[in-house]
Amino acid sequence: MTDVDIWSDATFMAAVGEAVWAPSIHNSQPWRFRRTADGIEVLVDRDRALPVCDPDLRAARISCGAAAFNLRLALAVAGAPAACTIGSGDVVVHLVPDRGRPVTPAECRLHRQIRRRHTNRSGFAEARVAPGVMTQLVDEAADEGGWLHVVEDDESALWTVAQLTREADAQLKADPAYVAELRAWTSADDDVQGVGRGAAGAAPHPAEMMPRRDFGGPPREDTRDLSGAPVVAVLGYQGEHRMHEIQAGMVLQRVLLRAADLGLATAMYSQPIEVPTVRERLRLALRRPYAPQLVLRFGYAPTTCYTNRRPVSDVIDR
Ligand SMILES: Cc1cc2nc3c(=O)[nH]c(=O)nc-3n(C[C@H](O)[C@H](O)[C@H](O)COP(=O)(O)O)c2cc1C
């Protein structure tokens, strides 16, 4: 293949097969992939949007940005590096073949984690994450143009983030339409979409410092806070418009893959981002110029159940 050959069908299909393992809000997989005359487009799939918890498609664009990051990584590892531009309208990202170059060891490391990475909704171990490990994640976010704000391990900062998450969670749960939408994306078995019983973890317990989203898991009798040890961090980008949300998705995926590479388990909380007034209070508490995009926790945990994905043929526009 010369430097600027267009990608073959096989390369395209294989790369999309990796892209779909990105995280997405409620595992809705709100993406489509299309070959164009000069490359590949990633599009947001409006039919899979969540009108109640994501009316502006913010979370859908973050999810698509994460998928685009995987796509680009898979192409680089296949020896077909891509240059990327942010698209307009429903086109999230446009990739075209870039000059040939050897794949880097860092790309290989991240690529190996694409199918291993998953969201942890079960308990974390008591072991603390060393500050040096978190610094690596902070650097990873900055290299991708974003920011990861590690919340100080002092009670007041943590309490503020936890309190905002609790407030947002309570507000969201009071809306029957929100609960109905969440239930619609909760599956009893290992469906190809949504969050299945295995991945849901136990139902959130009032003792938890940060309430997890309730994906219909069984009630938990243990009254300890199973999420006491993991570090809390907030992710964002240098801007908060549509294109920055897509880029924040790329930052998210890079951080998540690096975390998996470092042996960390990750939990995500977007309730405080989904309630605009709470999101603004979180921004002020962190003293950031731009709105945060996701709250995360990093810690150590055994591998839990994975969510599933739709077949590649379902996400390709012919
Ligand atoms: C923008 C965004 C917001 C998310 N918010 C939450 C959340 O609030 N609670 C949660 O448990 N998982 C959240 N997730 C994780 C998804 O539920 C998860 O990625 C999806 O179910 C696929 O599972 P996997 O990450 O294990 O591959 C979020 C993911 C994204 C991309």
Describe it for me?
The chain is an alpha+beta fold and 318 residues long. The protein folds into two domains: 107 residues, NADH Oxidase, CATH 3.40.109; 169 residues, NADH Oxidase. The chain is built from ten helices and eleven strands. The strands form three sheets. It has a five-stranded mixed β-sheet, covered by helices on one side. A hairpin with a 4-residue loop joins strand 1 and strand 2. The longest helix is centred in the N-terminal third of the chain and has 20 residues. The radius of gyration is 19 Å and the shape is globular. It starts with 8 loop residues before the first helix and ends with a strand. 47% of the residues are buried. The mean pLDDT is 93. Flavin mononucleotide binds next to helix 2 and strand 9. It comes from Dactylosporangium maewongense. InterPro entries: Nitroreductase-like (IPR000415), Nitroreductase/BluB (IPR050627). This is Nitroreductase.
- Ligand roster: flavin mononucleotide
**CATH topological fold name of the largest domain:** NADH Oxidase
The largest sheet is: 5 strands, mixed
Number of strands: 11
CATH class of the largest domain: Alpha Beta
Helical fraction equals 25-40%
Strand order of the largest sheet: 3-4-2-1-11
Helix count? 10
Helix and strand pattern = HEEHEEHHEHHEEHEHEHHEE
**What is the global morphology?**
globular
InterPro entries: Nitroreductase-like (IPR000415), Nitroreductase/BluB (IPR050627)
Protein name: Nitroreductase
